[in-house]
């Protein structure tokens, strides 16, 4: 593990970058849609919230983790180090931001109080792991994936990192922890999902019924069911581990490409569709979709996150952050 002092990305980042408060856009009744500018050229993508309600997003292209204040749109970028290319970010039980840092082939921890960045490098046998997404289990252990065929964990108490080759080869992408504490990841290139045994680190593979579907990201609902965005098939599918049962629905339109998935507090399922350049909401009760197209071409929202009454995503193609509010929040 190496330690780096808090640094700003460049001299131009030394001061807070002031942006206009988010620009509202038209949305369906009961919803509000707002766009916030991200740093130009940053390729804004995966996001997380801190304990103060601020939004942090990965700047995969400029090597920063940037804090967005939704109240005024201001941006506070933090460099994660030389050659950094962050992919996924999540808030840890310790109040720090934990990042899959593909550029340095390490897990990064940003202490929000001190600004220190700690790195937990992967073993040499997993060089160029193409780190993807991370999450914390119910015991406070951080689990992560790498598309080049690796998954692993970091124990924040000791700093020990363990990593294993994925049994399906390349592909581990999205990862989630169910309310019961089970850890699952989706394998894009491997076309499957897998449960990790936290005691042994071994996996149990489960294959969706659609061949070569491209299971990309996965998110649990309140019942422990797993919702999967299928990139190749353009479907959203759900797997119930208790019943070992599957259901699938095709996203609307022609040529859908389901990328991100997120399940809100009402168990409504949100996805991003690259084919329609839109965020869509799926209601499992009515089995119906609602669509929220971007007002700019090539939005490429690669990750969704949310909190009560809100869903957030990073428009990696437009260097913007999008917020959809619903219910009372709208």
UniProtKB/TrEMBL annotation:
Protein name: Virginiamycin B lyase
Alphabetized InterPro entries for the sequence: Vgb (IPR051344), Vgb_bact (IPR011217), WD40/YVTN_repeat-like_dom_sf (IPR015943)
Gene Ontology CC annotations of this record: outer membrane-bounded periplasmic space
Top EC class for this record: lyase
Bilayer-crossing regions: none
The EC number(s) this enzyme carries: 4.2.99.-
GO molecular function: carbon-oxygen lyase activity; magnesium ion binding
